[in-house]
Structures are given as structure tokens and as C-alpha cells.
Amino acid sequence: MYPSDCKYTKDHEWIKVNGATGRVGITDFAQKQLGDVVYLDLPQVGRIVAQGEAFGTVESVKAVSELYSPVAGEIVAVNAALAEKPESLNKDPHGSWIMEIRLTAPADLDALLPVADYSELVK
Question: Which CATH number does the domain housing residue 88 bear?
Fold first, then answer.
């Protein structure tokens, strides 16, 4: 159910790294807990974030939840199309990236969960 080429946070974000950058989104577990997503507050491109720092919010019919960066780095892109159609997070959470980040501390990845550990966490 969860892609094995991603790393996961205990806050239910995923990151898929490609070289020096990674794409970040929310997991299927997170979207199910949220319910129907109606709004997404994207971060500013160029913003520097620390690992675990809130970078935006996702609003659903149930609640507003913070989004936390799985790694430290500079935000180099945001998925503007997703902001226009935030319900895409419900349809394809692992194919709907929210931001792209240039990692400044690749060792941050060591603190994240591999797919087996994340799957166990959300059982």
C-alpha cells in the first residue's frame, strides 16, 4: 500500500528523494484520517525549513492539520495544481506531491521510517 521508495514521518508525511532533492506529500493513512480535503496552504518557494518544522496546512471537512517537513532544506518548488485541486490528495496521496525540497542535511533521512516500520506504525 505504501511505496517502498519513500521514507515516512510519524506525522504521516512521505518523502521520495531523487539526488539532492525530495518530493514531499501526505500518506494514505493521513488522508483517510483527514477526510475530504478542501484546502491546501502551500509554503513559499525559497523558504528554508528545519526538519520537523511546519511548512503549511491541509484543511478538510473535519479539521485543519499542520504539514511538517521530513528533512531540513530549501523549498525549491510547490505543486500549484494541487492547491487548485486539493481533493487530489484523497484520490492519490502518494502521487500528489505538495512541495519539493533541496536537502541541506541528507543525514535527516536516517531519522525517518522505512516502509515496513511505517506500515507497522499505522496498523
Answer: 2.40.50.100
